[in-house]
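User: For my dataset I need records formatted as: sequence, then structure tokens, nothing else. Please produce one.
Assistant:
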Amino acid sequence: YVFQPQTGGYQEAPNPNTGPAFPMAITLNPSSASFLDNTPAGIRICTVSVQMSDNSQFTGTLTTSDTNFFAISGSDVVTARALTPADDGSHSTTITATQGGQSASIRVKR
């Protein structure tokens, strides 16, 4: 079983010694997002780290579910566009790491 931080529970996982390596867990640094409503485009919100089933380097793809506010740049979550006071309030996105035909996800909240 593998601990899934996005749900706080455990999930049965394939044997990591068979088949291609896959993402098991995602962590964010910092663990919570904080940015102003006038943040320019491309500013780093957090850095994504992906733990792989065989401890290899993650070489897959990262995606964000809300491309209006968030973008992926390398292993960073960044602002997708310049924000304005109209963007004030709570925003969240799900970051998904995919490799070896499997994926893991984590939620980023402001």
